[in-house]
Amino acid sequence: MQRWRGLEDIPEDWGRSVVTIGSYDGVHRGHQLIIRHAVDRARALGVPAVVVTFDPHPSEVVRPGSHPPLLAPHHRRAELCAELGVDAVLVLPFTKEFSNLSPADFVVKVLVDKLHAKAVVEGPNFRFGHKAAGNVGFLTEQGRVYDFEVEVVDLYVSGDAGAGQPFSSTLTRRLIAEGDVRGAAEILGRPHRVEGVVVRGAQRGRELGFPTANVETLPHTAIPADGVYAGWLHAAGEAMPAAISVGTNPQFDGTERTVEAYAIDRVGLDLYGLHVAVDFLAFVRGQARFDTLDALLEQMTEDVKTCRELVAEASGRG
């Protein structure tokens, strides 16, 4: 799969293509419906499928300081798009100048002149151009002028977590912020993932017999509510069952919020300096302060047992 940053990265000889445009943060199940439709349409037409997205999130440029928590960094979105069969991902730097493009100019500069769109696939609420003035109706009119089709994909409705709401990144962020990682996974179609480099922390986990990978998360990452979670630690090409702690470590009067993952039953791991990923499977308990260190150790032992069982069950080994 090709990855481009900016219109200038698109090959000069790029031919017709099927395009879908959006932030696609998280590439959740609603996004997957649209992207799969675009890929299927591209295969039927014998042309490549292209996903167009933006960096930073448009809201940060339009309303500075309003950048939403991110469900997936751009490299992860590209990986997920590749798994869906996408041929190219174009990340457009979203600048103030770019935000001032009228819908008509956006169509010409991006869809017509560069990507030579043969079809454009979007959800029903797609908006684009200056002040989000463009919609699928306007896009359809432009398609008649510039010889591309517009296809609208209705999004399915989510299950229990969504309470009848359409799949959405906003809902997913809310569920994650509440610690409902199972609900978020229903919308994402997979566990929520947090990534970053393992850095040295206070090393109290090692002293207590539960050495953890202290993950320095990427900027704007959507981090679940404080507490203990079961999940997986992905490092060096391996997925390891993990007990994950999110919070400020009140037992030791911590003030900085951290994400720490203990690889269950693994000894001698040295992950410092590695880029790792943490997948959140299930909430186990909230953050707490204990009366004694022994009480904390007893609870940590119980937490690890619970996490081991939950991961084994999810992996089909329960």
UniProtKB/TrEMBL annotation:
Pathway given in the UniProt record: Cofactor biosynthesis; FMN biosynthesis; FMN from riboflavin (ATP route): step 1/1; Cofactor biosynthesis; FAD biosynthesis; FAD from FMN: step 1/1
Purpose of the protein: Catalyzes the phosphorylation of riboflavin to FMN followed by the adenylation of FMN to FAD.
Domain Riboflavin kinase: 187-312
Family affiliation: Belongs to the ribF family.
SMART domains linked: Flavokinase
Catalytic activity reported: FMN + ATP + H(+) = FAD + diphosphate; riboflavin + ATP = FMN + ADP + H(+)
Enzyme class: transferase
Name this protein carries in UniProt: Riboflavin biosynthesis protein
